[in-house]
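Data deposition worksheet. Section B asks for the primary sequence of the deposited chain exactly as it was used as input, without tags or linkers unless they were present during the calculation. Section C holds the resulting structure in token form. Section D is free text for depositor observations; keep each observation to a single sentence. Incomplete worksheets are returned to the depositor.
Section A, Depositor: J.P.
Section B:
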Amino acid sequence: MRTSKTDQGVRDQSKVKPTLAISFSGGRTSAVMTKLCFEKFKDTHEIAVTFANTGCEHENTLRFVDQCDKAFGWNVAWVEAIVTMGERKGIRAKVVTFETASRNGEPFEAAIKKYGMPDRNHPHCNARLKTEVMYAYLRDELGWKRRTYWSAIGIRADEMDRVSSKRIQNKFLYPLADAGWTKEDVKRECASWGFDLELKGEHYGNCTFCWKKSNRKLMTLAQESPQVFNFPIRMEAAHGWTNNTDTNKRVMFRERRSALDIIELARTRDFTPYSDAELQDGQLISMADYDVWLDTGSGCGESCEIGADD
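Section C:
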């Protein structure tokens, strides 16, 4: 399905197919979007499916990507950021596999060493570790020039707040959002596959400790699996002043909270832990009453989609 630059150079240009990049984040919604797009366009388009690994995704996310690829034959390109220190060196892409993919945050740490800690005021992690990596792979490995192709992204109709305001400028497609697919539609489709994204809840979605998640999600993680904060704890200690011209040491979480602060809040504050909403009488019902402080977040679900930093 993918064609190298060498192959492209000898093709009959009159037979060149239009190109479509599909960004598979590793979540259910993204998987359904990839399946539908692949089935619809595989005979009419040259398709490249990419999964950008930060090294901080849950192991079951990686397994789900691998299962989808093997079940549906997408030929997913697993890519990771290559970060070169220096002002004039941008992000490049390294091709890995399920077996060789980073699992200890190596790409993420490399980006932090150069660009500093990501947080609400410095939201560069998605761009450096997802969006730019996909562009670099398509450019360097396939010879696709940016903005000569559309990129399909897995966001639903019930999460339109996650759609990029620059969707046309960046040639982003949101097939499920535009077609009116909801979370329940996605769950119904995935239920027919015979395998699933086996996370305890969407609060474990990639990256596990994401600073964009709500306080309720983060505090629930801190109670259930405090080890997921080991990486941000280490990064905050080592790189709080990296590429930082602020007067305060940079920490990852909103309201200038550190990873240790999140763990302490989870230990000392009474709150109803996060759980995925359930379907009752045809409507999704949350298991906890909405609270502005606890539940304000970026709208991110179980996945991190390209373009989220725009």
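Section D:
Strands lie at 19-23, 46-52, 77-82, 92-96, 150-153, 172-173, 278-280, 283-285.
The chain has two domains: 5-201, 215-295.
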